[in-house]
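Reading is simple: each integer encodes one residue's backbone shape. The lines below illustrate:
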Amino acid sequence: MKIEISQGDITTTHVDGVIVGLCEDSGQLGPATSAVAAVDALLGGAIRTLLDSKGAKGKAGEVTVLHTLGRLPCRLVAVCGLGPQSRVTTDGVRDAVAEGSRALRKLGATSMAATLIGAGAAGLDDRAVARAIAEGATLGLYSFAKYKLSEVGDMERLVIVVRNSGDASGLQEAVATAVVLSEATNLARDMVNEPANYMTPSRMAEMALDLGSTYGFEVTVLGKEEMATLGMGALLGVASGSAEPPKFIRMDYTAAGGDAARIALVGKAITFDSGGISIKPSEGLAEMKDDMAGGAAVIATMSAVARAGAPANVTGLVPATENLLGSRAYRPGDVLRAMNGKTIEVISTDAEGRLALADAMSYAVKEGLAPLVDVATLTGACQVALGKTYSGVFSNNQELADRFLGAAARAGERMWQLPLADEYRELNKSLIADIKNVGNRHGGAITAALFISEFTGGVPWLHVDIAGTSNSAKDNGVIVKGATGVAVRTLYELVRSS
């Protein structure tokens, strides 16, 4: 989709559909110069009639589409609710545009326009609004139709209409950033939505290599032999039941000088998780192709960081494998040795992600990387605790946690910090090894995070559990049904501000 900034009047813009914002407490539609009032006037007061008849209330998430019947150059107007005027945010604008864009596409629109919604009545920053509009449209219109004979129609053009071009370069820059981040998020969505027979560890490695070649970062892929030489017994244990070869993907982007700190982004990538011998129930098993969402987020983030030319040094690490049953599969009761020498008693082969991360963290520490940030669809317990809206955040360094949560707020992704309490370490103690890979049924998200912390070497580290947020059952604002691409925009914001 082409996105452009245009100086002019939205009521004279030649597109298929127009998006206008409506606040919940709008007693009046605003001054005559406001977009919604100007559109309403040309529609003969249709929007005012909707308000008076309670056909539209301006609630967040609400969309009403009006047919202009030739009264405007466009044929459709999407009236999108923003909620109370005092609570309008760029996040709300982003979601409203996503909802409006889908409504227009459903009616066959291939081009649309919007003003800087919220920059007037709500006083939001123009650049932030332009970015939110571009992200809302690009993220909200995402669909995965690769394996369908009939594809969803594309929205080809978005025009952001401004009254004057005084800050045209700033608005263009904001839109360019939005495009990079939205396309990276959609790349992660594509990877997660792919079926597991296509998105194998080898295919993930190929994609990383292709992206590195395109955007200019180095990629190294380790195979089973190199992993064995490094002593990655935990990752290889998980991989032992599958005929698909595991891959350990390293991506290096350098733009801040050799002496600057190098942050490590680590993404769990179990391309299909059967649970192994501790097999999962059949219900929902088809969704276990998304257990590589953390790895997809890291690969996509690396592409965004390099494409945007962020002034930072970043290394992405992705341990990729399947977790399947087989004659050589690891078993409950086995003991594995991680790269840092620690032994792990396997209580459940369905707690495999933390085993893969144990070796990835050990590798990062050995390479002198810091801080460490891992993203993983790790525990159902985190989903029980926080539901499907918030990702769980754990850290051994509050300064890093604060920076990350600030990045999430800027990105518009919901994250919530949970305690990393030493009292829970007792639950991970093993009788026969240094540690076991499962605690008990209580505080599972915390004990899983504490397990990973055993392999971080005491350096600043943060863990993001996206088990509940990596996939959605319905469209809601910029979140679409299927893979969400969660954490890409937050990781980018963290790297950019480092």
The chain has 14 helices and 20 strands.
